[in-house]
Amino acid sequence: MTSPVDALPITRVPRTGLPAHAVVVGDPGRAAVVADLLADAKEVSYHREYRTFTGTWQGTPVVVASHGVGAPGALLLFQELAEAGVSTILRLGTAGAIRPGIRDGDLVIADAAVRDDGVTQQLIPAEYPAFSAPEAVLALQRAARAAGAPYHRGVVWTRAAFQPGFLPLPGEAYAAAGIAAIEMELSALYVFASTHGLTAGGALVVDGANADELVDKDATGGYDPHRSVVADGVDRGARITLDALRLLASTER
After folding, report:
1. How far apart are CA 230 and CA 233, in angstroms?
2. Global pTM value
3. Which is it for the CA torsion 68, 74, 80, 86, positive or negative?
4. Fewer CB in 10 Å around end: N or C, the chain?
5. Rounded CA gap, 37 and 247, in Å?
6. Rounded distance, CA 204 to CA 245, Å?
């Protein structure tokens, strides 16, 4: 573990020496699962929801780090990873499908995100877009194709609130517009990356059908992300995301 003097204040990641390419996930336990796929994996910090590993994937040095639930806390990880030398960040997350035809366990590669994240509105005007680096989208797509994995591309909805409240939601309008899925952190990554010269992308494993008022609870039995189809999708998505990082690193070399 890093000594306090050599660690950044929020996440406790080392101030220097991290690889340039990172996979970020929400769950600290999932970070450990992804790190188990690496060669020479080592846990370098674990503070609050922020758990960070280093290792190599098929010869490419990588970081695997968790950011917890929600964009404000996730943004702190993105900021400190960048400060520590990370220049490429791919988010591996889970999401609820909105677009018809997207099944549980499928991968959604996010071209862009709706900025309903609850934090970037306080940093930059709402008109500023949240978009993936094109090369990240293409690397994720290439890796998904090579793996023979079911995947979809499109815009996703990043929303701060997990549960519906008392306000009307634009879910039906977003469904009509072809929004692919809903999640909680990606637009913050995209805005941060594009405003700080980083490369960012997102691959989301579908763990449920639709969102909020669109959910047919009688048909689905309610939200349950702990099914084998989701676990299998996450394992597949982790390997795809790591492969995409390797592809991005190879083009940079």
Report:
1. 5
2. 0.93
3. positive
4. C
5. 17
6. 15
**SS3 state at 19:** coil
Angstrom distance (rounded) from CA 35 to CA 146: 21
Q: pLDDT per residue over 190-238, tens digit each?
A: 999 999 999 999 999 999 876 444 444 555 456 788 889 999 999 999 9
Whether the Cβ atoms of residue 110 and residue 201 lie closer than 8 Å to each other: yes
What residues have CB less than 8 Å from 141, skipping those under 6 apart? 109, 151, 153
Query: What is the three-class DSSP state of 197?
Result: coil
Of 142, 147, 244, the residue nearest 199 (C-alpha) = 244
Angstrom CA distances, 194 to 146, 187, 210, 232, stand at 28, 11, 28, 31
Q: For 115-154, how does the pLDDT look when each residue is reduced to its tens digit (9 = 90+)?
A: 999 999 999 999 999 999 999 999 999 999 999 999 999 9
Handedness of CA 100, 224, 148, 87 (dihedral sign): positive
The C-alpha atoms of residue 141 and residue 173 are separated, in whole angstroms, by 27
